[in-house]
Fold:
Amino acid sequence: MPLPRSVFVPAYAKINWTLDVLGKREDGYHELRSVMQTIALCDTIRLTVDESGTPGAIRFTCDVPALRTEDNLAVRTAHLLRRLAGRDMPALRIELSKHIPVQAGLGGGSSDAATVLKTLNTLWNLRLGIHELERAAAELGSDVPFFVHGGTALIEGRGERVTPLPDAEPLWLVVVMPDVGISTPAVFQALTPDQYGHGPSSETITNAIRAGAQVPFEQLHNDLEPGVLRNFQEVARAHDDLRGAGADTVLMSGSGAALFAPFRELDDAARVHASVAATGLATWLTHTIAATAAIG
Ligand code: C5P
Structure:
Protein backbone atom coordinates (compact mmCIF):
# COMPACT_ATOMS: atom_id res chain seq x y z
CA MET A 1 0.00 0.00 0.00
CA PRO A 2 1.47 3.42 -0.94
CA LEU A 3 2.16 5.89 1.87
CA PRO A 4 -0.47 8.66 2.25
CA ARG A 5 0.59 11.80 0.40
CA SER A 6 1.69 14.33 2.97
CA VAL A 7 3.19 17.83 2.66
CA PHE A 8 4.33 20.58 4.99
CA VAL A 9 3.45 24.08 3.78
CA PRO A 10 4.16 27.48 5.36
CA ALA A 11 1.27 29.94 5.73
CA TYR A 12 2.89 33.38 5.81
CA ALA A 13 1.55 36.32 7.81
CA LYS A 14 1.00 39.77 6.26
CA ILE A 15 1.45 43.37 7.17
CA ASN A 16 -0.29 46.38 5.62
CA TRP A 17 2.10 48.98 4.25
CA THR A 18 -1.01 51.14 3.99
CA LEU A 19 -4.68 50.81 4.88
CA ASP A 20 -7.04 53.52 3.63
CA VAL A 21 -10.71 53.25 4.60
CA LEU A 22 -12.62 55.02 1.84
CA GLY A 23 -16.15 54.67 3.22
CA LYS A 24 -18.89 52.32 4.42
CA ARG A 25 -20.71 50.16 1.89
CA GLU A 26 -24.37 49.18 1.74
CA ASP A 27 -23.46 45.57 2.62
CA GLY A 28 -21.97 46.74 5.94
CA TYR A 29 -18.35 46.21 4.90
CA HIS A 30 -15.93 49.08 4.43
CA GLU A 31 -14.46 50.07 1.09
CA LEU A 32 -10.70 49.72 1.44
CA ARG A 33 -7.51 50.46 -0.41
CA SER A 34 -4.47 48.77 1.04
CA VAL A 35 -1.00 47.64 0.04
CA MET A 36 -0.32 44.28 1.66
CA GLN A 37 2.89 42.33 2.04
CA THR A 38 3.59 38.74 3.08
CA ILE A 39 6.26 38.32 5.76
CA ALA A 40 8.40 35.38 6.86
CA LEU A 41 6.57 34.82 10.16
CA CYS A 42 4.37 31.81 9.39
CA ASP A 43 2.13 29.06 10.62
CA THR A 44 3.00 25.53 9.50
CA ILE A 45 0.38 23.25 8.02
CA ARG A 46 0.72 19.57 7.22
CA LEU A 47 -1.88 18.19 4.82
CA THR A 48 -2.17 14.44 4.45
CA VAL A 49 -4.35 12.80 1.82
CA ASP A 50 -5.03 9.14 2.60
CA GLU A 51 -6.51 7.23 -0.33
CA SER A 52 -7.21 4.26 1.94
CA GLY A 53 -9.14 6.36 4.52
CA THR A 54 -12.90 6.96 4.57
CA PRO A 55 -13.73 9.13 1.50
CA GLY A 56 -15.02 12.55 2.49
CA ALA A 57 -13.50 12.41 5.99
CA ILE A 58 -11.76 15.61 7.12
CA ARG A 59 -9.82 15.44 10.39
CA PHE A 60 -8.25 18.49 11.99
CA THR A 61 -5.91 19.25 14.82
CA CYS A 62 -4.10 22.38 16.01
CA ASP A 63 -1.44 22.94 18.67
CA VAL A 64 -3.49 25.81 20.13
CA PRO A 65 -6.46 24.08 21.85
CA ALA A 66 -8.78 27.10 21.52
CA LEU A 67 -8.39 26.98 17.72
CA ARG A 68 -8.91 23.20 17.50
CA THR A 69 -12.55 23.40 16.36
CA GLU A 70 -14.52 22.40 13.30
CA ASP A 71 -15.20 26.11 12.88
CA ASN A 72 -11.52 26.83 12.15
CA LEU A 73 -11.18 28.56 8.77
CA ALA A 74 -8.71 25.89 7.61
CA VAL A 75 -11.40 23.20 8.07
CA ARG A 76 -14.10 25.35 6.51
CA THR A 77 -11.81 25.80 3.51
CA ALA A 78 -11.47 22.04 3.03
CA HIS A 79 -15.26 21.59 3.25
CA LEU A 80 -15.79 24.39 0.72
CA LEU A 81 -13.34 22.76 -1.70
CA ARG A 82 -15.04 19.39 -1.28
CA ARG A 83 -18.38 21.03 -2.12
CA LEU A 84 -16.82 22.71 -5.18
CA ALA A 85 -15.41 19.35 -6.29
CA GLY A 86 -18.97 18.00 -6.19
CA ARG A 87 -17.88 14.56 -4.97
CA ASP A 88 -16.35 12.92 -1.91
CA MET A 89 -12.63 13.54 -1.96
CA PRO A 90 -10.04 11.18 -0.42
CA ALA A 91 -9.71 11.37 3.37
CA LEU A 92 -7.83 14.42 4.58
CA ARG A 93 -5.95 15.27 7.75
CA ILE A 94 -5.07 18.90 8.50
CA GLU A 95 -2.47 19.62 11.19
CA LEU A 96 -1.97 23.27 12.02
CA SER A 97 0.94 24.55 14.09
CA LYS A 98 0.35 28.21 15.01
CA HIS A 99 3.12 30.76 15.24
CA ILE A 100 1.26 33.85 13.99
CA PRO A 101 -0.47 35.53 16.93
CA VAL A 102 -4.28 35.69 16.70
CA GLN A 103 -6.31 38.92 16.77
CA ALA A 104 -3.15 40.63 15.60
CA GLY A 105 -4.09 42.02 12.16
CA LEU A 106 -1.43 39.74 10.67
CA GLY A 107 -3.92 37.64 8.70
CA GLY A 108 -3.00 34.29 10.29
CA GLY A 109 -6.38 32.58 9.88
CA SER A 110 -6.82 33.98 6.36
CA SER A 111 -3.36 32.77 5.34
CA ASP A 112 -4.06 29.30 6.74
CA ALA A 113 -7.23 29.23 4.62
CA ALA A 114 -5.50 30.34 1.41
CA THR A 115 -2.68 27.84 1.98
CA VAL A 116 -5.14 24.95 2.44
CA LEU A 117 -7.02 26.16 -0.66
CA LYS A 118 -3.96 26.24 -2.93
CA THR A 119 -2.33 23.09 -1.60
CA LEU A 120 -5.51 20.97 -1.67
CA ASN A 121 -6.22 22.15 -5.21
CA THR A 122 -3.00 20.32 -6.11
CA LEU A 123 -3.24 17.35 -3.70
CA TRP A 124 -6.86 16.61 -4.65
CA ASN A 125 -6.03 17.33 -8.29
CA LEU A 126 -9.00 19.72 -8.63
CA ARG A 127 -7.40 21.94 -11.30
CA LEU A 128 -9.24 25.09 -10.18
CA GLY A 129 -7.89 28.15 -12.00
CA ILE A 130 -6.72 31.33 -10.30
CA HIS A 131 -10.12 33.04 -10.70
CA GLU A 132 -11.99 30.11 -9.16
CA LEU A 133 -9.50 30.08 -6.27
CA GLU A 134 -9.95 33.83 -5.80
CA ARG A 135 -13.75 33.45 -5.75
CA ALA A 136 -13.59 30.65 -3.19
CA ALA A 137 -11.13 32.72 -1.14
CA ALA A 138 -13.45 35.74 -1.09
CA GLU A 139 -16.24 33.52 0.31
CA LEU A 140 -13.97 32.56 3.22
CA GLY A 141 -12.98 36.10 4.27
CA SER A 142 -11.98 39.54 3.05
CA ASP A 143 -8.21 38.96 3.44
CA VAL A 144 -8.09 35.45 1.97
CA PRO A 145 -7.84 36.46 -1.76
CA PHE A 146 -4.63 38.40 -1.03
CA PHE A 147 -3.00 35.26 0.36
CA VAL A 148 -3.83 33.31 -2.80
CA HIS A 149 -1.21 35.60 -4.40
CA GLY A 150 1.09 36.71 -1.56
CA GLY A 151 4.13 38.94 -2.06
CA THR A 152 3.22 42.61 -2.47
CA ALA A 153 -0.25 43.53 -3.75
CA LEU A 154 -2.78 46.34 -3.91
CA ILE A 155 -6.11 45.36 -2.33
CA GLU A 156 -9.39 47.10 -3.13
CA GLY A 157 -13.13 46.67 -2.54
CA ARG A 158 -13.76 44.88 0.77
CA GLY A 159 -10.45 43.10 0.16
CA GLU A 160 -11.43 40.78 -2.66
CA ARG A 161 -9.94 42.82 -5.54
CA VAL A 162 -6.24 41.97 -5.65
CA THR A 163 -3.74 43.56 -8.02
CA PRO A 164 -0.33 41.89 -7.67
CA LEU A 165 2.55 44.39 -7.60
CA PRO A 166 6.26 43.82 -8.19
CA ASP A 167 7.95 42.67 -4.99
CA ALA A 168 8.73 45.56 -2.66
CA GLU A 169 12.39 45.97 -1.69
CA PRO A 170 13.43 43.24 0.79
CA LEU A 171 13.15 44.72 4.28
CA TRP A 172 13.81 43.55 7.82
CA LEU A 173 10.85 43.89 10.17
CA VAL A 174 10.42 43.97 13.91
CA VAL A 175 6.89 42.81 14.73
CA VAL A 176 5.48 43.34 18.20
CA MET A 177 2.30 41.85 19.66
CA PRO A 178 0.94 43.96 22.54
CA ASP A 179 -0.61 42.11 25.42
CA VAL A 180 -4.13 42.36 23.97
CA GLY A 181 -6.05 40.77 21.10
CA ILE A 182 -8.34 42.94 18.98
CA SER A 183 -11.49 41.88 17.12
CA THR A 184 -11.59 43.18 13.54
CA PRO A 185 -15.40 43.77 13.46
CA ALA A 186 -15.17 45.84 16.67
CA VAL A 187 -12.49 48.09 15.18
CA PHE A 188 -14.51 48.67 12.01
CA GLN A 189 -17.71 49.24 13.99
CA ALA A 190 -16.04 51.88 16.16
CA LEU A 191 -14.87 53.78 13.10
CA THR A 192 -16.69 57.07 12.43
CA PRO A 193 -16.78 58.80 9.03
CA ASP A 194 -14.43 61.57 10.22
CA GLN A 195 -11.78 58.86 10.62
CA TYR A 196 -12.05 57.75 6.99
CA GLY A 197 -8.90 58.74 5.22
CA HIS A 198 -8.82 60.37 1.87
CA GLY A 199 -5.07 60.41 1.90
CA PRO A 200 -3.13 59.15 -1.09
CA SER A 201 -0.91 56.73 0.86
CA SER A 202 -1.86 53.54 -1.01
CA GLU A 203 -1.43 55.28 -4.35
CA THR A 204 1.94 56.75 -3.35
CA ILE A 205 3.26 53.40 -2.13
CA THR A 206 1.87 51.57 -5.17
CA ASN A 207 3.59 54.03 -7.50
CA ALA A 208 6.91 53.75 -5.64
CA ILE A 209 6.81 49.95 -5.73
CA ARG A 210 5.83 49.89 -9.41
CA ALA A 211 8.77 52.21 -10.14
CA GLY A 212 11.14 49.86 -8.29
CA ALA A 213 11.91 52.64 -5.79
CA GLN A 214 12.43 52.28 -2.06
CA VAL A 215 9.32 51.96 0.13
CA PRO A 216 8.80 55.56 1.36
CA PHE A 217 8.59 54.88 5.10
CA GLU A 218 7.20 58.35 5.84
CA GLN A 219 4.13 57.56 3.68
CA LEU A 220 3.13 54.38 5.52
CA HIS A 221 -0.32 54.92 6.96
CA ASN A 222 -3.23 53.05 8.55
CA ASP A 223 -6.64 54.74 9.03
CA LEU A 224 -7.54 52.19 11.73
CA GLU A 225 -4.51 53.04 13.87
CA PRO A 226 -5.55 56.29 15.66
CA GLY A 227 -8.76 54.76 17.04
CA VAL A 228 -6.96 51.62 18.28
CA LEU A 229 -4.15 53.65 19.88
CA ARG A 230 -6.80 55.71 21.66
CA ASN A 231 -8.86 52.74 22.86
CA PHE A 232 -6.16 50.20 23.74
CA GLN A 233 -3.47 51.47 26.08
CA GLU A 234 -1.48 48.21 25.59
CA VAL A 235 -1.08 49.08 21.90
CA ALA A 236 -0.20 52.70 22.62
CA ARG A 237 2.41 51.55 25.15
CA ALA A 238 3.96 49.04 22.73
CA HIS A 239 4.04 51.81 20.08
CA ASP A 240 5.96 54.02 22.51
CA ASP A 241 8.29 51.13 23.40
CA LEU A 242 9.17 50.58 19.74
CA ARG A 243 9.81 54.27 19.21
CA GLY A 244 11.79 54.47 22.42
CA ALA A 245 13.91 51.51 21.27
CA GLY A 246 14.95 53.52 18.22
CA ALA A 247 12.42 52.58 15.51
CA ASP A 248 11.81 55.68 13.36
CA THR A 249 8.74 54.21 11.63
CA VAL A 250 6.11 52.22 13.55
CA LEU A 251 2.76 51.21 12.12
CA MET A 252 -0.15 49.03 13.16
CA SER A 253 -0.92 46.07 10.89
CA GLY A 254 -4.53 45.77 9.67
CA SER A 255 -6.97 46.19 12.57
CA GLY A 256 -4.21 45.44 15.13
CA ALA A 257 -3.10 44.75 17.69
CA ALA A 258 0.31 43.93 16.15
CA LEU A 259 2.73 46.73 15.30
CA PHE A 260 5.68 46.59 12.93
CA ALA A 261 8.79 48.64 12.24
CA PRO A 262 10.69 48.29 8.92
CA PHE A 263 14.48 48.46 8.61
CA ARG A 264 17.00 48.39 5.76
CA GLU A 265 19.84 47.22 8.01
CA LEU A 266 19.81 44.04 10.08
CA ASP A 267 21.97 45.67 12.76
CA ASP A 268 19.32 48.36 13.36
CA ALA A 269 16.47 45.81 13.38
CA ALA A 270 18.36 43.52 15.77
CA ARG A 271 19.08 46.36 18.19
CA VAL A 272 15.41 47.41 18.33
CA HIS A 273 14.26 43.79 18.56
CA ALA A 274 16.55 43.07 21.52
CA SER A 275 15.53 46.24 23.30
CA VAL A 276 11.77 45.60 22.91
CA ALA A 277 12.10 41.89 23.76
CA ALA A 278 13.80 42.91 27.02
CA THR A 279 10.57 44.67 28.07
CA GLY A 280 8.81 41.29 27.97
CA LEU A 281 6.65 42.01 24.90
CA ALA A 282 6.17 39.25 22.33
CA THR A 283 8.39 40.33 19.46
CA TRP A 284 9.80 38.84 16.25
CA LEU A 285 12.70 39.81 14.03
CA THR A 286 11.45 38.83 10.60
CA HIS A 287 11.43 40.10 7.00
CA THR A 288 9.35 40.56 3.88
CA ILE A 289 8.66 37.58 1.60
CA ALA A 290 8.62 37.82 -2.19
CA ALA A 291 5.67 36.58 -4.23
CA THR A 292 7.79 33.84 -5.80
CA ALA A 293 8.36 32.37 -2.32
CA ALA A 294 4.76 32.92 -1.27
CA ILE A 295 3.12 31.04 -4.15
CA GLY A 296 2.94 27.41 -3.08
O1 C5P B 1 -14.40 39.36 5.77
P1 C5P B 1 -14.08 39.09 7.20
O2 C5P B 1 -14.96 38.04 7.80
O3 C5P B 1 -12.63 38.81 7.44
O4 C5P B 1 -14.36 40.44 7.97
C1 C5P B 1 -14.53 40.49 9.36
C2 C5P B 1 -15.30 41.74 9.73
O5 C5P B 1 -14.49 42.91 9.54
C3 C5P B 1 -16.54 42.01 8.94
O6 C5P B 1 -17.64 41.33 9.48
C4 C5P B 1 -16.70 43.52 9.07
O7 C5P B 1 -17.23 43.85 10.32
C5 C5P B 1 -15.25 44.00 9.08
N1 C5P B 1 -14.78 44.38 7.73
C6 C5P B 1 -15.23 45.57 7.18
N2 C5P B 1 -14.77 45.94 5.93
C7 C5P B 1 -13.89 45.17 5.27
C8 C5P B 1 -13.42 43.98 5.83
C9 C5P B 1 -13.87 43.60 7.08
O8 C5P B 1 -16.04 46.29 7.77
N3 C5P B 1 -13.46 45.57 4.07
In short: The first helix runs from residue 73 to 85. The two ends are 28 Å apart (CA to CA). The chain has ten helices and eleven strands.
